[in-house]
Amino acid sequence: MKISAFRSFVLTSVLLLAPATVSAQDYDAGMAAYGRGDYETAAREFQALADSGDAYAQSRLGAMYYRGQGVPIDKSEAVRLYRLAADQGAVEAQVLLGISYYTGDGVSQDKSEAVRLLRLAADQGSDIAQTSLGEIYESGDGVSQDKSEAARLYRLAADQGNAEAQYKLGVMHTRGDGMPLDFAEAVRLFRLAAEQGLAKAQYSLAVSYATGSGVSANMSEALRWTRLAAEQGLADAQHRLGVVHIGGEAVSADPSVAARYFRLAADQGHAEAQYFLGLQYVSGHGVPIDPLEAIRLLSLAADQGLADAQYRLGVIYVLGQGVPRNESEGIKLFRLAADQGHAEAQYDLGFRYDHGDGLPKDPSEAFRLYRLAAEQGLSDAQFGLAVMYDLGEGVPKNISEAVRLYRLAAEQGHAKAQYNLGVTYNTGEGVPKNLVRAHLWANVAAANGHEEARSFRDWLEQKMDKVQISDAERKAHTCMTSGYTDCD
User: Fold this and answer.
1) What pLDDT shows up at residue 1?
2) pLDDT of residue 25
3) How many degrees, rounded to 5, is the angle at CA 170 between CA 167 and CA 171?
4) Residue 21 neighbours by CB distance under 10 Å
5) By the 8 A CB rule, do 59 and 65 touch?
6) Burial of 74 by CB count in 10 Å (0-12 exposed, 13-18 middle, 19+ buried)?
7) Model confidence over 168-201: pLDDT tens digits?
8) How far, in whole angstroms, is CA 252 from its chain's centroid?
9) SS3 sequence, the chain?
10) Terminal C-alpha separation, the chain
11) With CB atoms counted within 10 Å of each terminal CB, which end of the chain scores lower, N or C?
């Protein structure tokens, strides 16, 4: 919650709390009128008390001017009334005036004055001021950043039952910010806030149960808390329920239900939900195929900088799926994603520079992009980089490095890398010549659909005896059944 978001909570508190300086019956008429929505009568009642100098009435009337309840919206008048009440030591007014100075709402922005006022209220025990001030110290916006001080203030407010402070303190425990890393304590704090209905805390508690962080993993509890948060409109929780229903994680897979949750989150601007829902409209999974709606949603997510959406939208433009083919727009989107470290986008651009496909041929740039993607484990990029080392294109020829990269890609099931690895074992270039291993990798590549590998394997058998062939076939079987983890 940004500090300005505390304003609504504080305003409500000011208008509901009983006064401390005069008898409650003096406020009965105003409070009764406010409670039934007769704001004009409430404003008149509070105005009379405010004119007599009562700080609490001034705070309440200021809050009504801010909201435009029974009086015209007048933030300058709200600030004037807050200041009158704050000068008398009214805590609620100090908080409201402090927030007004912090945000520059109704008064010239002055963060130093905001901190002074919030400090006055915090020192009088206001949990809202303590939480607001804690957020300022945590962010360092208006003061020197001090996460230990933020944690101290959050703790004071949390001990008074402030749900926002409990949540924020829990988050700090999960990060080790300003305090020791302590997931169990984070869970305790999240639970306290969650049980008060704070949606963010409910979702954080759900994540704790899903991951087993600070509590025994329990998917039923994770789903229960996620649903509670989603019902309050928390986009992260709605998105998570969409993911759960797509994958059938602890629930029956139901893409139509997933689409409903993704839609709820997407309509709030949740980029990942927009992306997933866009993919559903591409595939028709749970929703009718609708290329235009897919493009709209993917564009929304891409405009927020989501690399996956930028890449997928780039593919749509390059292939002309539901839109006129626009290779230059697709390449532009690939570049946006690649600049964020998206491995597939890096590979796609690398391939284009390597082959002069839609971009000028540039072996050096192809090598750079292949390497970035290969370092992330993308097998296509590992293979492309291996070929460059193998042929000495764009980089000095290095057969040993080529073999290493072929092996990395081959162990991910890349048929072309498996075939090339078989060829290197046959020639003995970069590795010791070994017909059994050559046959092993040719056989595996053939099983993965590489047609040339089939004829290569058959050709190898003409140079091998029956024992070697049997050994190679046994090793190929072991290699594949182990998921390529045992291929020696």
Assistant:
1) 42
2) 54
3) 90
4) 12
5) no
6) middle
7) 999 999 999 878 899 999 999 999 999 999 999 9
8) 25
9) CCHHHHHHHHHHHHHHCCCCCCCHHHHHHHHHHHHCCCHHHHHHHHHHHHHCCCHHHHHHHHHHHHHCCCCCCCHHHHHHHHHHHHCCCCHHHHHHHHHHHHHCCCCCCCHHHHHHHHHHHHHCCCHHHHHHHHHHHHHCCCCCCCHHHHHHHHHHHHCCCCHHHHHHHHHHHHHCCCCCCCHHHHHHHHHHHHCCCCHHHHHHHHHHHHHCCCCCCCHHHHHHHHHHHHHCCCHHHHHHHHHHHHHCCCCCCCHHHHHHHHHHHHCCCCHHHHHHHHHHHHHCCCCCCCHHHHHHHHHHHHHCCCHHHHHHHHHHHHHCCCCCCCHHHHHHHHHHHHCCCCHHHHHHHHHHHHHCCCCCCCHHHHHHHHHHHHCCCCHHHHHHHHHHHHHCCCCCCCHHHHHHHHHHHHCCCCHHHHHHHHHHHHHCCCCCCCHHHHHHHHHHHHHCCCHHHHHHHHHHHCCCCHHHHHHHHHHHHHHHHCCCCCCC
10) 56
11) C
Residue 366 and residue 311: Cα distance in Å, rounded? 18
Q: For the purposes of burial, counting CB atoms within 10 Å of the CB of 25, is it exposed (0-12), middle (13-18) or buried (19 or more)? A: exposed
Measured in whole angstroms, the distance separating CA 24 from the mean position of its chain's CA atoms is: 48
Query: Residue 409: which of 433, 428, 390, 434 has the closest Cα?
Result: 390
Confidence (pLDDT) at 2: 57
Q: State which residues of the chain have pLDDT below 50.
A: 1, 4, 20-23
pTM: 0.87
pLDDT in the model for residue 11: 63
Count other Cβ atoms within 10 Å, centred on residue 326: 15
Number of Cβ within a 10 Å radius of residue 288: 8
- Note the residue count of the chain: 488
CATH 1.25.40.20 fits 126-232, yes or no: no
Spatial separation of the C-alpha atoms in residues 395 and 401, rounded to whole Å: 11
Domain with CATH 1.25.40.10 in the chain: 1-124, 126-232
Classify the C-alpha dihedral 173-175-181-187 as positive or negative: positive
Token pair, residue 307, equals: 């690399």
What is the model's pLDDT at position 26?
A: 61
Architecture of the domain delimited by 1-124: Alpha Horseshoe (1.25)
CA angle at 410 for the pair 405 and 415, rounded to the nearest 5°: 125
